[in-house]
Amino acid sequence: LPPRLRVAVVTLEPGGDDQRLDALATTAERVAAAAGVNVLAGRRDATLALVLGVEDTTVTRSVVGQVLHALRGAVGAAGVSACVDWSADLRDAHRQARQAIEAAAFAPEGPAVLFDELGLLRFLLAPSDRTDQLRFARAVLGPVLDYDRDHQTQLVATLGAWLDGGGSLTRTAAALYVHPKTVRYRLRRGAEPSPRAPSAP
Questions:
Q1: Is residue 198 very low, low, confident or very high in pLDDT (cuts 50, 70, 90)?
Q2: CA 31 remoteness from chain centre
Q3: Which of 8, 31, 81, 96 could disulfide-link 70, Cβ–Cβ 3.0 to 4.6 Å?
Q4: Coil, helix or strand at residue 97
């Protein structure tokens, strides 16, 4: 298997014997492999688990969509974990895929729900530990945190004050003892995908 993996969980409609359910698991594995993805499939009762050697979100969505299309009429719901290292404990990835299924009612419509796309919803649906929360914050704010550290700026602190101030530039500026234009500048800088130091004049 490649170094980065995802776990997809597919619940099947109840009914049918073991032979039919085994055939569905074989079909799912065959379709994913035909899409060029390294895959391992297994079944317990009416639940399929697929370990997919795919990292890219678009490719993941395409492959899982093809699998679900091949299983049409037999699928109840499907969820896909975030990427994990191949050496990781896959129970966490399996838990993420299950959480994605639980989020189906709230998540964007599609053939499957990807854990990557749940945002803060993942914390509302299931308990999480500090490690999960830090990992999420790092994924969302990583470039801004790095920029603050490397340039001794206050982008994250400004964002926090702005949220505390209900989105008011005036209240944020008063709390930070800066001009509202400074707050606006920092918020714009923090919103950039990868903040950069200002270029020299």
A1: very low
A2: 23
A3: 31
A4: helix
For the chain, the C-alpha Rg in angstroms (whole number) is: 22
- Whose CA is closest to 60, among 138, 4, 137? 4
What are the residues whose beta carbons fall under 8 Å from the beta carbon of 65, sequence distance 6 or more?
110, 111, 112
Interval 51-85: pLDDT, tens: 999 988 889 989 999 999 998 878 888 999 988 88
Nearest to 158 by CA among 120, 150, 168, 138: 168
CA separation for the pair 112, 100 (Å, rounded): 8
Regarding beta strands 113-114 and 75-80, do their DSSP bridges make them parallel or antiparallel, or are they unpaired?
parallel
pTM of the predicted model over 0.90: no
Which parts of the chain fold into alpha helices (H)? 18-34, 57-70, 90-102, 121-125, 130-151, 155-164, 169-176, 180-191
Task: Map tokens 């709390």 to a residue.
Answer: 175
Neighbours of 111 (CB within 10 A): 15
